[in-house]
């Protein structure tokens, strides 16, 4: 099992599943969600409209449609409200439930964006620490998932992941 940092556009990755930082409607939005919907094409919105939404911390699977990735795991991160409103637990649940869904579908490779770290305002380092610790503990018990990429879109995000993964 490997957990590593990768810098770039998540929509370019030919992994089994890319994770989308969605909103609870699952109908698309800005940021990485917008990029994934644009690259996957209109069939994605059509498919997601039948999923009935997704609560914060939960995860749903769709095909990748026009993406090089076979599947998309949509998860909904918490909106940062200062950190005392359950945000760390909700963010940890996003990573845990996305990994569990990948395991259920016997997927081997995944890529995660920095869930909640854009429009939802979660502080980068606190979020990255949660991502690394949840994935490290989850991957120890995973039977199928072999490789997980933590995708940094900015140099700052990428360097942060590399530092935490080296520690
Ligand atoms: N590839 C990889 N990472 C990206 C990409 C990309 N193409 N584009 C942005 N990022 P955000 P959130 C990074 O705002 O904070 C949407 O409207 C970005 O730099 O996409 O969870 C949804 O519909 C940041 O580090 O997601 C929700 O309403 C990270 O992805 C809301 O935004 C997440 O930023 C979710 O907000």
Automatic annotation (TrEMBL):
Pfam families: Macro (PF01661). CDD domains: Macro_OAADPr_deacetylase (cd02908). GO terms for molecular function: O-acetyl-ADP-ribose deacetylase activity. Residues 1-167 form the Macro domain. Gene3D superfamilies: Leucine Aminopeptidase, subunit E, domain 1. NCBIfam families: PRK00431.1-6 (NF001664). This is O-acetyl-ADP-ribose deacetylase.
């Amino acid at each position: 099992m490997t957990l590593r940092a990768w810098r770039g556009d998540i929509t370019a990755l030919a992994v089994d599943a890319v994770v989308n930082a969605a909103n609870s409607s699952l109908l698309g939005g800005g940021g990485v969600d917008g990029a994934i919907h644009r690259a996957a094409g209109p069939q994605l919105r059509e498919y997601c409209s039948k999923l009935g939404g997704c609560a914060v911390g939960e995860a749903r699977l769709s095909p990748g449609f026009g993406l090089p990735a076979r599947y998309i795991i949509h998860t909904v991160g918490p909106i940062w409200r200062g950190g005392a409103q359950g945000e760390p637990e909700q963010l940890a649940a996003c990573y845990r439930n996305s990994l569990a869904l990948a395991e259920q579908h016997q997927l081997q490779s995944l890529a995660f964006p920095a869930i909640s770290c854009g429009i939802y305002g979660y502080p980068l380092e606190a979020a990255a620490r949660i991502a690394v610790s949840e994935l490290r503990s989850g991957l120890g018990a995973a039977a199928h998932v072999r490789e997980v990429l933590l995708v940094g879109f900015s140099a700052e995000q990428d360097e942060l992941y590399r530092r935490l993964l080296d520690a």
